[in-house]
Write a structure and sequence with these properties.
- The complex is a heterotrimer of chains A (about 240), B (about 190) and C (about 220).
- With about 240 residues, chain A is an alpha+beta fold.
- Chain A has 5 helices and 9 strands, in the order H-E-E-E-E-E-E-H-H-E-E-E-H-H.
- In chain A, the strands form 2 sheets. Chain A has a 7-stranded antiparallel β-sheet with strand order 2-1-3-4-5-6-7. A two-stranded parallel ribbon of chain A has the order 8-9.
- The N terminus of chain A is likely disordered.
- By secondary structure, chain B is mostly helical.
- The longest helix of chain B is centred in the first third of the chain and has 32 residues.
- Chain C has one domain.
- Chain C has 8 helices and 2 strands; from the N terminus they run αααααααββα.
- The N terminus of chain C is likely disordered.
- At the B-C interface, helix 2, helix 4, helix 7 and helix 9 of B face helix 2, helix 4 and helix 8 of C.
Amino acid sequence: MTYATAPSPEGQPPEQQPPRPAAGNSAHMIGALGAVAALSGLLLVMVYQATLPIIEANREALLQEAIFDVLPGAESRAAFVIRNGAPPAELEEGQALGDADFYAGFDADGVFAGVALRASAQGYQDVIRALFGYDPNAQEIIGFRVMENRETPGLGDKIAWDPEFLANFDGLQARINPDTGELDPPIRGVQEGAKTQPHEVDGISGATISVDAVVTMLNRAVGERVPYILEHLDIIEGAR
Amino acid sequence: MNPDSLTYVLLDASLVNNLVLASFLGICPFLGVSAKNETAVPMGFAVIFVMLVAGVCSYAINQILIYFDAPYLRIIAYIAVIASAVQLVEMFIKWFSPTLFRALGIFLPLITTNCAIMGMALFATAREYNFMQTLTYAIGGGVGFTLALILMSGLREQLELADVPSFARGAALTLIIAGILSMAFMGFAGLGG
Amino acid sequence: MPKQDTFTPGEPPVLEADVFLKGLWRENPVFVSLLGMCPVLAVTNTVMNSLAMGLATTFVLFMSTSLISLLRSFIPKQVRIPVFIVIIATFVTIVEYSIQAISLELYENLGAFIALIVVNCLIMGRAEAFASKNPLPRAMLDALGMGAGFTFALFCLGAVREILGSGSFAGVDLFGPNFQPWAIMILPPGGFLVLGGWLLLFAWARERSDRKKAEAEAAAGD
């Protein structure tokens, strides 16, 4: 390590130093700046090296927990990267879990439980980011979890914790029309308690924009990703 | 509206997530300089200018740090480069236009320690904005800061004439007014929805 | 250690305990000097966030002013500001990574305001006004006092905002399910209003005690 050659300022007892050097002593100035910069560089590299594995493990654990949360019954998972015009590839060794495009979950007996996908849309105050679970065989959304939101506390942020709202995602129909390859019918937000169809989401009164954002993000993510997943379902199911 | 579009970035930085009234950045100069309208306006323009410089600098540094894979140097590099950039800008304005320097000069040192500048740079990095978005965000942030400053100075000039209890004069009343102004700005939320 | 080694002769002697205590109340960085307002308003929406921010700031303040005091005769006067900035920024980065390692949730709640400790004028102010002129033990005491005062002020704000805005204290529900939270208090305007309210209360108390004192003196003079 190159820092070791830098003079250690701590070795010099400050009390015995002469009073502040006179102006114009530029060698001393550069020396002091250099020594402090070297000391700070050394400290930073040490802290960075020490904390990085812990931080990455924390991130991974958080994402892992969310994946199992949106895929009921899942106990193991595989991570995939989407490749243009080619089947999905499993995440390589050494890549971070967060770099994957979607995740497949499997239950204790190794049966395919569904895929977890990311979605995001502009909410009331800022972008809302979420993870949702999708069952390609039943063509339903089976779980939903908000990862990041800055919606109004007590109103808009109910999309993240209100049990009545989250109950919408116990099997929300999201069918891909095999002829057109598009989501048909699209998911629709309705007023609180007005849900009659399997593809409708019961809203939250006072949080229309936040609920609309959830509907928008799901429509967009399902429309973009699910046709690709259905096309390569055999590879994904066999990834265990 | 698409959150990546430049219009949205501009609206977001100046109104919806106004740096001062919604994100609490640059409170010190906001409380310190907003007493009079005639100081608020030049201060606002100085901030817009420095925001632009800092936005460009921070974007460049971030690209370099990503290239060298050294994210742990970000805070040090940002603060050092932004502080030096402000000094350079100050010298340049002095040489280029003494009149402009007299108008902005006293505010520039104040801006170096303004957390709105640093905050803007960090937010733009955290949102992974590209160059044009960073530039737009910087302008929007500066405009938002100026807007808040001008509104506040107008209110405070009116307040000078109001009969308030003696213990409420000064910081306490200014903060409560800022709270009401901040509530008014909450009305802009949902603008991008 | 000689007590008065670096003080100018005209200044009254300052007791060691007072170096610590003044930061808590008489020169409280938030309530009296109005320093470092950005994090004070931004992260005080819950008690936990307030305490975490207060402790993080105290750590940076303590470590950087200690180091600056230790190096104070080694640092040439002309380059002291850049040196201070580098030292402060180093400890801020250390705190940022440590908090991420301890709890990602906390890190996300505090957001960019951890990095913004670097522009907290409280730290630069104590480094320049106190640590660069005083020996290590005094600088450490001063930093602890100011840090405690800052944390105390954040706690005062966080407690009021969380109780009114979420009906809980440090995450523990206080009023049961029928409480209608005053949501504005945990939103940005609440920060301004609650700090304004505290300042109003303190100013009123001070004016009252001043008036009482003046009345007592007037009565004694008769």
